[in-house]
Design goal:
Layout (H helix, E strand, L loop, with lengths): L2 E9 L2 E9 L3 E4 L1 E4 L6 E4 L13 E4 L3 E4 L2 E4 L3 E4 L4 E4 L3 E4 L2 E4 H4 L3 E5 L2 E5 L3 E3 L5 E3 L5 E4 L5 E4 L3 E4 L4 E4 L6
Antiparallel strand pairs: 1-2, 3-4, 5-6, 7-8, 9-10, 11-12, 13-14, 15-16, 17-18, 19-20
Length: about 170
């Protein structure tokens, strides 16, 4: 039904009819088979190569797959792509060179990401407005705010000078 052109071959003195050219969206495997039966495939070769009776070869993969010699291979941790490169990674992964890498490999200090953007940094870092992790440079600070000032000082220390410094409680007069 999805065959555009049939051929006849003889195997052990028996004539066998097979489809050599299928309609778009199908590939020949004696009869025509939908391209979607090939994992990740959205477009496949519709006719047989010379001297063959079947061709199960993809020519275009869905977004989160990459094409390699007629086979679609899933891009690890990829949610959306264009068939060659990833456009959106799963949580805690960020795109680098079209592939999904753990967020801490792409952004130093990042421990959590969503939609290819860092959303949380490790304790010694703070998340900037540009969604990068920057090392907190205030001595005895537990957690910095996004402007680099100290939000929370370590135990037995308190904020001083509008969060630009953490001083030991015993150093404060009064």
């Amino acid at each position: 039904e999805n065959c555009g052109e049939c051929q006849v071959m003889t195997l052990q003195n028996i004539n066998q009819t097979y489809c050599s050219h299928c309609k778009n969206g199908y590939y020949p495997d004696m009869k025509c088979v939908n391209c979607s039966s090939i994992e990740g495939c959205i477009e496949c070769q519709s006719k047989v190569d010379t001297n063959q009776t079947m061709t199960k070869k993809c020519i275009k993969c869905s977004g989160e797959y990459i094409l390699n010699n007629g086979i679609c291979t899933k891009i690890p941790n990829c949610l959306e792509g264009n068939g060659y490169l990833c456009d959106k990674c799963s949580s805690d992964y960020i795109i680098k060179n079209g592939k999904c890498k753990p967020c801490n490999e792409v952004i130093n200090g990042c421990i959590s990401s969503e939609n290819d953007t860092c959303i949380e940094c490790s304790n010694d870092y703070y998340l900037t407005k540009e969604k990068k992790c920057k090392r907190c440079m205030i001595d005895n600070c537990e957690k910095c705010s996004d402007d680099g000032r100290c939000d929370t000082c370590k135990y037995n220390y308190t904020k001083w000078n509008d969060g630009k410094k953490c001083v030991e409680c015993s150093e404060i007069d009064g």
